[in-house]
Amino acid sequence: ARAAETMADDPGPPPSIQEVMDDLAMRFVVNCPAEEQESFERLLFQVEAAYWFYDDQYREIWPATFKTHNLLSFSQQLFKHCSLLSQFEDRAKEIYDAFTLYKHQIPTCGAILLNPSMTKVLLVQSYHGKAWGFPKGKIDKDEDKPACAAREVLEEIGYDCSALIDENEFLEMQWQQQVMRLYVVRGVSEDTEFVTRTKKEIGEIAWHKIKDLPTSKEDAQGKQKQFWMVAGFIARLHKWLEKQEKKKKQKKGSKQ
Length: 256
Fold this sequence. Notes:
This protein is an alpha+beta fold. It has helices at residues 17-30, 40-61, 71-81, 92-103, 145-157, 231-255, and strands spanning 108-113, 120-126, 132-133, 136-138, 170-175, 178-185, 202-209. Strand 5 and strand 6 (178-185) form a beta hairpin.
């Protein structure tokens, strides 16, 4: 997730673009751990972190001085200025495209947070759009899936669910080449105060009634279109809830 970082309270006059790129190259690329320099895919994650810092700090403090970039145009600029990357400047677009494909193949983990009555689910809305989704994110190198889910939830909504995750209670689906796993976390109070630890990633955090959410892309039309990203998981969640209700009735019957 996109971490919130800050610069000095009194930054003074804006630096030159050369100074900015030198700073970002040293912060995120040149001095990054050796294992992060073993492949372009790993290096581009560092470039992406540098891009977030540029957008969150330099652009926010001096918007009239520093131009808006997307990740591709920023990557091309950093390749030009960074001594470690400049020899590959003419391949920057090719390397970026390969990185984008690679990112879409990395498994993501997160959580489906349910209220105590299991009638509502917590969703997060994108900072830059209207789409709602579950708190989740890409798994880090050598990280196990429950740990990834807990980390992403903590970063995105400020809630530590690590002690509540049952590694056997999850829903999973595949979107193109990416596997998404969400652990079902029960009993989260609706009175919990959720505050994101990210910057420019999460716009809103809110509870939604499960019965009101679409269960297919066909249902996610009109006003429901903003929930198209969760529809597949909501369909699976309904089945999971039915299974829990059956278990509850069987357990109750065995006691009589």
